[in-house]
Every structure is written in C-alpha cells, then in structure tokens.
C-alpha cells in the first residue's frame, strides 16, 4: 500500500499526532470500567491493530477489576455480556457465573430481561463464545434468540438492523471486515460518538481497501496465467471467492504477504480438489496421489497428459513460494 495508516498520521514514538493524542487520552483518562468496555467495543471499527498497548492495558483492567455489585450500570445485562464477550474474544477466560444474577432459582434465564432488547442482543452474541459443554450459554442462545425474533420488528434502527444481522450470523462468527463496514454505518448514530475515531476508522478502511484491490489485481493476473496454462475446463474459476476468504482470516495491512500466499495455495489446492472430486478416474487419482507424494518433476510421465501441466505448475509455484520465503534469488527460477 502506497500510504499506510501509520505513515499518513506519522505514528512514531517521537512524533505527537491526533492518533497518538487520542491513544494517550484513552490510556490515561478513561479509567472507569464502563468507558474501557465502550472503548474496546468501538475499536471494532477496524482500528484495533493500531492500539495494541492500550488494548492490553484495557483488557487487564476489565479482567481484574470487579464489577461493582451495587451499580445500576454493571447490573445491566448489556454491560455484563459485553465484558464477557470481549474478554473471551481476546483469549481471556471468564466464567459463566457472571450471568447468575440474570437467572431464576430454577436456573433458567429470568423473564425480567425480556424487555431489554440491547441486553438480549449482547447476551446472544456473548453466548456464542461458548465452548462445548457450557450448558448455560447454550440455554442463553436459545432464550435470547426466541425473544429477539419476537421483538426485532418492534425496535428502532440501528438496533433493529443489529438484531437481524446477529440472528443471521452472530457477531463472534461474523467476518471482521464486514463487521467493521456495518459498525461504521451504525456508530455515528450512537450517543456521544467520537468523531475523530470515526474519521480514523473510515480512512483506515479505505486505505486497506486500496491495498486489497491491488492484491486482488495481482492475484487475478497470476490466476489467469495459471488457469489458462493448465487447461482444466472442469475446474472452478474462483480466485475472487478464495481471496475474499483469505481476507476473512487476515484483513489487516501487515498481513499482505500472508494473504497472497494463502490465496495462491488455496487456488492450487482448488484445482487439485476439483480434479480428484469431479473429473479424474479412480486410477488417475491414484497416479496423481503417487506423484504428489513423490514431489518430483521427473515422475510427471506417470500422469495422464491432461494432468501433467497441473503437476508441473503446482511444484514450480511451491518451489517459488519457498525460495521467496528463504530469500533465495528468484532469478534461479528463470
């Protein structure tokens, strides 16, 4: 990417900038657990990778600081569920006991929370951080989903849209890049939203999108050359789909090399997969498997004619990947 987010804002250890000032402001003034939780939530605007130290400190704070039992704020289902989800999403274990105050003597969730749509939505999303065997969270999903289905047409935007999206795909299972896109549209409708944070998020989103488009262009040219060379009309032409999938895993600018490497690898695997699944005979599958196990261009003669170029291109591309990773001059391959 020609101009990175950090370069554009001059983010260095010695140059104060709006971003740095903003970061220091959150680090040193917003000490309450409430403000910390809201700040961490707002970083889902897609700029969390620019605040690693602040996020670490914020997580330490909300993990170790007990939520005040007498506070109306922290007796709120929304805030308890938000804290639970954020900690678990960052790999910090938190017991489901925190939801005990919202359950009745039989262990079921209390009907008192049915009139709190935001709380139900937060509970529903948080419960999707469950691990196998957490019955409390399984119950929470069923309980919250049933009531959200009933009330989704009775609440205003943007909450109505958030509920519909969550019922389709729960927030912890949503692609981060798409989550950012949705949240940017919703964030400016929140009370006391931060204009600078939203500006930074929009700028970062557009800069990363430019990088993604450059990567996709390069990958499309690589794929077209490969696809036209191997001449396998039964194989799916799916580089855009594959690249979208890699962005779902790693969308940040610093993972550019990994995205391109994954996309090329999955593209080659896709050609092999289609060959094994929909076209090759059983005998041809055995021969291709034998050749792949031996991983040597000299055995290409055991393959049927139509698979030879696929085998050669697979080997040459992986040799190229390894050479580039190890710093071997690429001229050796020409």
UniProtKB/TrEMBL annotation:
The reply on keyword Flavoprotein is no
Q: Which GO terms describe its molecular function?
A: magnesium ion binding; terpene synthase activity
Q: List the InterPro entries.
A: Isoprenoid_synthase_dom_sf, Terpene_synth_N, Terpene_synth_N_sf, Terpene_synthase-like, Terpene_synthase_metal-bd, Terpenoid_cyclase/PrenylTrfase
Q: Where do the Terpene synthase N-terminal domain residues begin and end?
A: 26-167
Note the SUPFAM superfamilies from the entry: Terpenoid cyclases/Protein prenyltransferases, Terpenoid synthases
Indicate whether Nucleotidyltransferase appears among the record's keywords: no
A Pfam family that this protein carries is Terpene_synth_C
Any idea which UniProt keywords this protein has? Metal-binding
Extract one GO BP annotation from the record. Answer: terpenoid biosynthetic process
> Which residue range or ranges hold the Terpene synthase metal-binding domain?
225-319
Extract the PANTHER family matched here: EUDESMANEDIOL SYNTHASE, OS04G0344100 PROTEIN-RELATED
Name of the featured protein? Terpene synthase N-terminal domain-containing protein
Organism source for this protein? Eragrostis curvula (weeping love grass)
* Record lineage: Eukaryota, Viridiplantae, Streptophyta, Embryophyta, Tracheophyta
């Amino acid at each position: 990417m020609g101009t990175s987010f950090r370069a554009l804002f001059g983010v260095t250890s010695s140059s104060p900038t709006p971003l740095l000032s903003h970061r220091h402001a959150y680090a040193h003034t917003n000490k309450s657990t409430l403000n910390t939780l809201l700040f961490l939530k707002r970083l889902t605007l897609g700029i969390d990778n620019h605040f690693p130290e602040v996020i670490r400190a914020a997580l330490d704070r909300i993990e170790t600081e007990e939520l005040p039992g007498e506070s109306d704020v922290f007796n709120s289902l929304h805030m308890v569920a938000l804290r639970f989800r954020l900690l678990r999403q960052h790999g910090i274990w938190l017991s489901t006991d925190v939801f005990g105050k919202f359950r009745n003597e039989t262990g079921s969730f209390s009907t008192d929370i049915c009139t709190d749509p935001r709380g139900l939505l937060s509970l529903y999303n948080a419960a999707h951080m469950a691990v196998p065997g957490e019955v409390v969270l399984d119950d929470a999903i069923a309980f919250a989903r049933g009531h959200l289905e009933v009330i989704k047409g009775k609440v205003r935007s943007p909450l109505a849209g958030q509920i519909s999206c969550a019922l389709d795909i729960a927030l912890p299972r949503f692609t981060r890049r798409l989550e950012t896109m949705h949240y940017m549209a919703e964030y400016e409708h929140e009370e006391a939203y931060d204009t600078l944070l939203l500006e930074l998020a929009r700028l970062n989103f557009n800069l990363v999108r430019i990088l993604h488009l450059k990567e996709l262009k390069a990958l499309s040219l690589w794929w077209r050359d490969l696809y036209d060379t191997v001449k396998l009309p039964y194989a799916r032409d799916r580089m855009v789909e594959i690249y979208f999938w890699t962005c779902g895993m790693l969308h940040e600018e610093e993972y550019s090399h990994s995205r391109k490497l994954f996309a090329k690898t999955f593209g080659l695997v896709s050609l092999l997969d289609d060959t094994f699944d929909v076209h090759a005979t059983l005998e041809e599958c055995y021969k291709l498997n034998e050749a792949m196990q031996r991983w040597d261009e000299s055995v290409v003669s055991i393959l049927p004619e139509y698979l030879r170029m696929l085998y050669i291109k697979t080997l040459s591309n992986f040799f190229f990947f390894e050479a580039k990773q190890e710093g071997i001059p690429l001229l050796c391959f020409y």
